[in-house]
Amino acid sequence: MSLVAAIDVVAALAFLGAFVAALAIKSHTRGVGASLKYLLMAGVGLYLFVSVSNVLEHAGITSVLDAYEDFAEVLFVPLVAYTLYSRSTSEQLLAAESAERCARNEHSLLMSVVEATPAGILVANEVGDVSLANDEARRIVGLLQQAMGGESPRAGAVLELAAIVRSAPVPGLLVSTGDDDVARTWISVRAMPLGNEGTDVARAVVVLEDVTERVLTERELEGYRLDLEQLVDRRTGELLEVNRDLQEANQARQRFLANMSHELRTPLNSIIGFTDLLLRELPGPVTYEQRIQLGMVKESSAQLLGLVDDVLELARVESGHGVVTLSEVELGARICALIASMSALAEVRGVRLACDHPDDVVVMTDTDKLGQIVRNLVSNAIKFTDRDGSVTVGVAARGDAVAVAVADTGIGIAPEDQERIFEAFQQVDSTDRARPQGTGLGLAICRELSDLLGYRMTVESTPGEGSTFTLLIPSAALADRT
Amino acid sequence: MYQESEIVDLLMVLFLTPIMAVSVRAIHVVGKRRFIAGYTAIVSGYVFTIAEGYVAPVLFNTLEHAAYAVGGVCFLAGVVALAHASRVRAELS
């Protein structure tokens, strides 16, 4: 066998294989697309025929097929051209079908969204023609048409759509039906421009929303707001008037207390002074009975003077005229010195008085006012502690603050009275007639002075066991000596 | 010397190939390059057929038949790939 014959055998086998393989192609398209398989088989078949003819010829078997080779070869190129054209057309058709299917799906989705949305949506052009509208849009346009007298005008005329489309984008426009506030429907109109799609006519998507309920609610709220403002103004005026009256009454009370106290102090000082003169027998001798009675007069006058002084002090603090003068004070030493000056009183009452300040602390405070607070607390403690009892004044750090505690073993205070005792002229009921009665102003003055200094006063007490009054001085009052 | 049918074949190739080149770019077929190679080999065979009438007849005759054989192998490869792809696609769908 010659070389050419051998090559022809290879060609024949290759084309035969291709022909058989083409039979196995599974066509997945219909119509023109399906013809690729058969066109391939035809093309491959032509050259299978040519190859077989060549084999027979070059192997010296027969040349009978050679006369037909030319026809096969002439057909091949047009067949390939037709195959390509067919395939190209098929793919274009498939692409067009796919695009159309996509467009249909998107249109279906868009229409579902448009129909499902609670707002009215319509597409209109600049001459007012509507090309698409959902049910809600038709309902709203119907309402507007009814409001225009039922003449069934075009939607474009009802809504002035042409103007809206021309001025798109419209962020929010409020239109209403008629002039009757009760039956009026309020519509919110928004518009977004659309592409012209090759035409000169402008189009826009118009969104209509029935906002009647919202508008009515807003109006109602606005009415409430105005009413409320008027009410607040009226009440503020009344409160200002009441406040002015209260201030005037308070000033009158202050003036009355100050004047009365002053008017009382002058004769009381005269009574005490002249009683003292009589007791010292400067005008002449007094009898034993007269001395006792003069002593009672002096003691009562002194008590009355103390009461007047307390009233004056309370009036001054309450009126806000108390002036705070701050200075550095070594708290423990200062309080112990104060306690020492009251030891005579404690001795008379048979009460042990002690001062405890393990760590001295320096604070910025008003010495006089702090001293007055401590004096009042210690005086009260001595007054309400039985003979052989004790009163202890301690100064100690408590957290960031400093606590000045006045603890006694006295009669104690019932829980229900523990807040009341800080009010003016309020005293704990005592059945012990021998116990000296106070004015009921001491603790009130302590509380007022404590507030004035920015301190906090507390009381802990158990009836029959004693009481502890604590004055908490905040850390801000601690002097920085570093 | 040449035969008339061979000239007709060559003319059709010269006339239709540019048109087919435009179409072949637009289509998506598995084994497209192999089919193009097979077509090119067969068209080369046409040229060799005409050439053998003028120079080196034995050589060009051999090249002509070799070109057909190459074309057959390329078509075989292309059709096998296409058949395989169509079977896979059919299984997936």
Question: What does it look like?
Answer:
- The complex is a heterodimer of chains A (482) and B (93).
- Chain A has 482 residues and is an alpha+beta fold.
- Chain A has 12 helices and 12 strands.
- A 5-stranded antiparallel β-sheet of chain A has the order 2-1-5-4-3, with helices on both faces. A 5-stranded mixed β-sheet of chain A has the order 7-9-10-12-11.
- Chain A is elongated.
- By secondary structure, chain B is mainly alpha-helical.
- In chain B, helix 2 runs antiparallel to helix 3.
- The longest helix of chain B has 36 residues.
- Chain B is elongated.
- Chains A and B meet through helix 1, helix 2 and helix 3 of A and helix 1, helix 2 and helix 3 of B.
Name its key features.
heterodimer; A: 482 residues; alpha+beta; Beta-Lactamase; 4 domains; five-stranded antiparallel β-sheet; five-stranded mixed β-sheet; 12 strands; elongated; B: 93 residues; mainly alpha
Question: Helix segment count of chain B?
Answer: 3
Query: Structural class of chain A, please?
Result: alpha+beta
The span between the termini of chain A is: 121 Å
CATH homologous superfamily heading of the largest domain in chain A: Histidine kinase-like ATPase, C-terminal domain
**Which value, in Å, is the CA radius of gyration of chain B?**
16 Å
Mean pLDDT across the residues of chain B is 90
- The SSE string of chain A, one letter per element, is HHHEEHHHEEEHHEHHEEHEEHEE
What would the principal axes of the Cα set say about the shape of chain A?
elongated
Can you count the helices of chain A? Answer: 12
Question: How much strand content do the residues of chain B show?
Answer: under 5%
- Average pLDDT confidence of chain A is 84
Total of domains of chain A: 4
Please count the beta strands of chain A (DSSP E, at least 2 residues each): 12
If strands are numbered along the chain, what order do they take across the biggest sheet of chain A? 2-1-5-4-3
CATH architectural group of the largest domain in chain A: 2-Layer Sandwich
Based on DSSP secondary structure assignment, what is the total number of beta strands of chain B? 0
Largest interface: A-B, 41 and 41 residues
Query: Which band does the percent of strand residues of chain A land in?
Result: 15-25%
Oligomeric state of shown chains: heterodimer
Largest sheet of chain A: 5 strands, antiparallel
Low-confidence stretches of chain B: none
